[in-house]
Amino acid sequence: PSDFSLSGRAAAKVVILGGGVAGLACAYELGKAGYDCTVLEAADRAGGRNRTVRGGDRLTELDGETQTAEFEEGTYFNAGPGRIAPWMVTLDYCRELGVPIEMFVNNNASAYVYTQGMTAPIRSRTARADLYGYVAELLAKATDAGALNQRLTKDDRERLSEFLRHFGDLGPDLGYNGSTRRGFETYPGVGDGIPIPAPSSLQDVLAAGTGRAITMDFGYEQATPMFQPVGGMDSIVTALVRAVGPDRIRTGTRVTGVKDLPDGVEVTHRGGAFRADYCIATLPPHLLARLPHNLGGPVTAALRTPVPIAAGKLGLEYGRRWWEIDDRIYGGITETDLDITHIWYPSHGYHSRSGLVVGYYNSEENAELYGRLSHGERRDRALTQGKKIHGEKYRSELRSSVSVAWQRQPYIEGGWAVWPSYTGGFTVLQHPAGRVYFAGDWLTRLVAWQAGALESARKVVTDLHSRVLQGT
Ligand code: PHE
């Protein structure tokens, strides 16, 4: 049983450009309805940005540098997507395809917040307690002093004050005087524990700049709990490839042109030409824009509109899970204002012998900066940054590493692509150009999520199928 299926069968021949998540999902859904699909994929593997790197894997960039992962057995690095929100259709595919999932720790009160200039990082729970506390104090005292009398009734003000006392852990005087919520230098046991020294003022807390970091999971896309497939994100790709049939996916087949004809589509590729009744183009827009085609000026203009964004990640493998043993961090993310932006700790394999930390996950200017460096330079730069948070072990205990700069990945050339506005070109490409359809996360409001690729695939196969059933 599956959540989505096209009703009524058809046998048309469809050529799908690109074997990423969108292309594979199109082939999977059309295949269920009887279509004869072929996926043309330029790279030597399917999956696109859904890529999990394991020991022995090679990663080649556009300038020719090749890294070979030296990870030990069992270590993996999700170089692309890493987390799935519970409302996303991605989880429905995991269920339908039998891909087991586990919790991804997106927010961890024990992880750190680090702002440049701090002598030591602050735990996320400490940053949150102080921010909530001082903001609650400010508002509670303002309320008490009558500043909100014009806006709120006496009952409302009492309810607000009651809430703020809990929200901020305020004292009877409505003051924030620190809180056990901040955590401890030595946690209570038989004894009281030793508290963390409190900041002196609201001004100190604001200057620490931790507000941005603790709001990271407020949005619906990032709210906990989130999930990941067990064993690596590419479990989704493996399952889709198996369901589509590996013989229907031609890797190493780079498309060189698309021609819409009255009675079909002709796709040329490095090894020849391929005829089909319909085509679904799922390459990134900036690559489709460079492909010779006869689909017309508005299509070309639309394909040129989304702006590719650089994004990068670095996987750091350690032989000791010091973040668990020394720092008591079990999964989650440290937020920084350094060029590494984030440090991710693994949400699986707790207490096992080794593990992999994501040493940076950045985008735009920071990702461009790292992307211009060699792998060794990226690693050294990221280690210098991470040492500010974790100390010398961050460098000395490193075993191996792999980095990806998505803007330098062949046949991808970007982390994701964003529309300056969801009008014009975006609308143009929601419709087929003759017999050629377009699909991908970039054709949804879920850019940079696999859910976008999957939602787009469902829409396009629905449109295509209703046309085929109508016989037009
Ligand atoms: N999906 C990616 C992530 O989880 C990129 C992204 C970040 C997309 C933030 C939207 C918002 O990091």
TrEMBL record:
- Kindly report, in one word, the top-level EC class recorded for this enzyme: oxidoreductase
Species this protein is from: Streptosporangium lutulentum
A GO MF annotation of the entry reads: monoamine oxidase activity
Q: What is the name of this protein?
A: Monoamine oxidase
The EC number(s) this enzyme carries: 1.4.3.4
Which portions of this protein are annotated as coiled-coil regions? none
Q: Does the keyword Membrane apply?
A: yes
The protein's UniProt keywords, in alphabetical order, are: Membrane, Oxidoreductase, Transmembrane, Transmembrane helix
Protein's UniProt keywords contain Manganese: no
In what residue span(s) does the Amine oxidase domain sit? 21-464
InterPro entries in UniProt: Amino_oxidase, FAD/NAD-bd_sf, Flavin_monoamine_oxidase, TAT_signal
> One matching Pfam family, short form?
Amino_oxidase
